[in-house]
Amino acid sequence: MTNTSSIAVFSLSGFNATVNYRVTLFSLTLLCYCAILLVNVSLILTIILDQNLHEPMYICLCSLCINGLYGTAGFYPKFVSDLLSDIHVITYVGCFLQVFVIYSYVKVDYSTLVLMAYDRYVAICRPLEYHSVMSVQRTAVLICLSWLVPLCCEVMVVTSTSKLKLCGSHIQKLYCENWSIVKLACSSTTVNNIVGLFVISFYCGHVLLILGSYMQLVKSALKSKECRRKFTQTCVPHLLCLLNVTSALLFDVMYSRYGSASVAQHVKNFMAIQFLMIPPLLNPIIYGLILTKIRSRLSLFMMAGQKSKLRVKV
After folding, report:
1. Angle formed by the axes of helices 136-162 and 190-221, to 10°?
2. Fewer CB in a 10 Å sphere around the end CB: N or C, the chain?
């Protein structure tokens, strides 16, 4: 039996399918990461620099973009370097750190989406109470909780997994993932199953909260033209982001637990990393295109940048 203390590194076998086209993948991955950095940083700076956007909805959106940068930082730098390397390993500590960052990012995403759904519920269903309910102080507290609670949940998950005795160090993915480590255990995983069930149930509750709030939102939207306008403009992008994150994560969870060995490795790889590619890239684009205030501010910043370039040339 191999003790956890004797394992220095984990090997990542998912890269075996990338050997023949590693340069192409490296270029596309680097381009994707640069695009993620660009769209998220642009939206964050737009919200921070414009006083008119210092409202709860936009502050939550800023938090969502910061979380996107946080989560992708736990994956892309290591992934890009591994694409050009012949040895695909990660240290024991580095593996658990990657698990913590990537999956706490997913949990913060869901918590932020719940907060945004609550904000829209108050804005549309209780408009006269909006400024008192969603005050600056309360918004700050809720955003802090949307980060602290997921981080604490992930600490529980990582701690329970780190106490397992492992019989191997071979992870069949492109990055470290909690369930892949648990499957290497040669000791009882009962505690891990209980913790996992608790966390999954807790975040299923998040989804139910969002669905409940949207049932109320739809009822209110049918009452007046103004409510319908608010719902279309601010709730549609939220629903698209929720669908985006949920579908991408569902692919990863279903593959991790029930994936077939007959599935081609490149298909497995895509299923495993799409929640780290699609949501961080599309979420800010969706909000940037649909929300009028964001779109107009971005246009103004771009025009100002073009004018400054012309002045320099002159």
Report:
1. 150
2. C
